[in-house]
Amino acid sequence: MLSEMPKTALVIPCYNEVRRLSLPAFKAALDSYPELMFYFVDDGSTDHTKQMLKDFSASSARLKILSLAKNSGKAAAVRHGVLESVKDGNELTGFWDADLATPLSELKYFIKELSCPNVEMVTGCRLAHLGSKVKRKASRHYLGRIFATVVSVLLSMKVYDTQCGAKLMKAELAAKLFADPFISGWLFDVELLKRMKEIYGIPGCEIKIHELPLRQWHDVGGSKLKFSKMLLVPFVLLRIFSRKSLPADAGK
């Protein structure tokens, strides 16, 4: 437990997560972090996710359930939750994947990193090294390295891991970065970095953004990202970096 913890919000985007949500783990995190609040955003689920979250919210006042009328993609769900959390006066806000591939025990390290001077955003980095327990399929690791290298070149910034689903930032920054809708529903992490670069420039980003090597991370089955979507990556990146709009359903 942190001795002095700022008021912190984590947005958990959910789409058909009945089989993957570990509610006891979220409850344990509330017990460990007295200033933590979860914002679960149901992204138009077609299973019983919404009802399960509604029942769970009765167990604590620090659980807030938000809903989108239809499936709008991860970016829209996260944006909805982040803006709500900023409005509620949280000092730190961010998002965490519902499957807890990044355990919530990592949160304290994110908060500690944000206490460093000038740091405004901390992003998880799935770097396998001695002393860590980062377990990732080889195919996903190498595809991830190729993708991150391409994005790093496009951004002209040294970025090791753009797509880790654990990110935390100061609320004032979040209000700026999430003010406008995203072009892509599943590569919005890249757009966040691009927006940071546009606001602060490369020198500013190198000071304000820290990639934090995770102590634990593991692959969880049931990913909503289909192979057909992976084939669209070059076109989505082109749209992001040329500021053009995607078709209504291309980024979900």
Please tell me about this protein's structure:
With 252 residues, the chain is an alpha/beta fold. Residues 244-252 have low confidence and may be disordered. It is globular. The protein contains 9 helices and 9 strands. Strands 3-2-1-4-7-5-8 form a 7-stranded mixed β-sheet, with helices on both faces. Strands 6-9 form a two-stranded parallel ribbon. Helix 3 (74-87) crosses helix 6 (171-177). The chain has a single domain, classed as Spore Coat Polysaccharide Biosynthesis Protein SpsA, Chain A (Alpha-Beta Complex), CATH 3.90.550.
Quick recap of the structure?
It is built from nine helices and nine strands.
Feature tags:
alpha/beta; disordered C terminus; Spore Coat Polysaccharide Biosynthesis Protein SpsA, Chain A
CATH topology: Spore Coat Polysaccharide Biosynthesis Protein SpsA, Chain A
In CATH, the architecture is Alpha-Beta Complex
Oligomer: single chain
**Helix and strand sequence:** EHEHEHEHEEHEHHEEHH
- CATH superfamily grouping: Spore Coat Polysaccharide Biosynthesis Protein SpsA, Chain A
Q: What level of helicity do the residues show?
A: 40-55%
Order of strands in the sheet with most strands: 3-2-1-4-7-5-8
Q: Judging from the principal axes of the Cα atoms, what is the shape?
A: globular
Largest sheet: 7 strands, mixed
CATH hierarchy class name: Alpha Beta
DSSP E strands, number: 9
Low-confidence stretches: 244-252
Strand % is 15-25%
Write the layout of secondary structure elements.
Elements: E1 8-14, H1 23-32, E2 36-43, H2 49-57, E3 63-68, H3 74-87, E4 92-96, H4 107-114, E5 121-125, E6 133-135, H5 138-155, E7 166-170, H6 171-177, H7 188-208, E8 209-213, E9 216-218, H8 227-230, H9 233-242
Parallel strand pairs: 1-2, 1-4, 2-3, 5-8, 6-9
Antiparallel strand pairs: 4-7, 5-7
Helix pairs in contact: 3-6
